[in-house]
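agent> step 3/5: call structure_predict on target 'BMP family ABC transporter substrate-binding protein' (Lentzea pudingi).
agent> reason: downstream docking stage needs a structural representation; sequence fetched in step 2, passing through unchanged.
tool.input:
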Amino acid sequence: MRRRMRGTAVAAIALTSLMVVSACAKDSGGGTAPTGSAGGCEFAEPPTAPVASSTSAAAGGDKVDGSALKIGLAYDIGGRGDASFNDLAAAGFDQAIKDMGVKKENTRELSAAPNEDESAKQTRLRQLASEGFNPIVGVGFAYTESLRVVAPEFPNVKFGLVDSAVEGVANVTPLVFAEQEGAFLAGVVAAYQSKKCHVGFVGGVDIPLIQKFEAGYNQGARTAAPKVTIDKKYITPAGDFTGFQDPPKGQEAAKGLIDKGADVVYPAAGASGIGVFAAVKEAGVLAIGCDADQYNQPALAANRDVIVASSLKRVDVAVYDFFHAAASNDIASLPKVFDLKSNGMGYATSGGKIDAKLQGILEGYKAQIIEGKIKVADQV
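tool.output (status=ok):
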């Protein structure tokens, strides 16, 4: 039932194009003979693509009457319109409202400010809960400590928490992801698209969550091309979350990597990625999107032609599924981790720049992850 529901959400939310996922493999080192080179890289022997693969699901899911519900969403910094993480949460929120028949006046979205005081987050959550909103989703790990305090004050309210967990608080459901899996295939794409065998990573904030993206990206690139050069730049250190909402600094970080020789850049930087794509466009190189299918994001229309693929972190699916499960008292059926197998991670090839050969290579890695033949690391 849960897998069917999730497939429905994916189709309805319409993050289109072929979506597959991968995870991270251990570095190949010199043990795998390259099969050839293109774009400056010598490539390791890729896995064989499966004969057939399907990511579609049944068209119909279980309907839930949510007309009497009041549902709330508390955004991370950047909010609706960031062309990334928060916009995905908004998409899941919107689709849940539509599918469950929630009345517009019974919905509420509240946004966060960069580096705001912890009390502001608690106030935001209390406001939603005290006004009768239930269920409520906190978008981002920044709500972890606030929910540790606020959730026990409202034991009958169901809270979902994206990217984190609150141990010992029964009414908070963690909605966590295997980010390194999608990033791994982003690394494979980067290696194959690079003309110099030199790629780059831009992280928004130097924290463990974003380091998971870096770890997967690095290992994916090195699994595909063991001799690839990888440079990285974090916009801000841990504790300074403006790195997720500073396009000019994102542009500066990407320019620095490009000046060093990187000709494919992958940002895991929230709204700061807008600046990364601008730098990539100006330099005439390539980029890989993150979280959403960024080729199709309106805010990136001016620079989308440089985006050859996007790793997908299906926050939309997790948010949708949480609201649906909470409304039907079925939270226990949610996956413990939104990963490849649960369609919680993926990638999009919008733009038509990924050819059939590379698509087959990506499918091969996907199959090996599903079978457990490739293990993913979540630390650099």
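agent> step 4/5: record observation. Confidence is low (pLDDT under 50) at residues 1-38, 53-60.
agent> proceeding.
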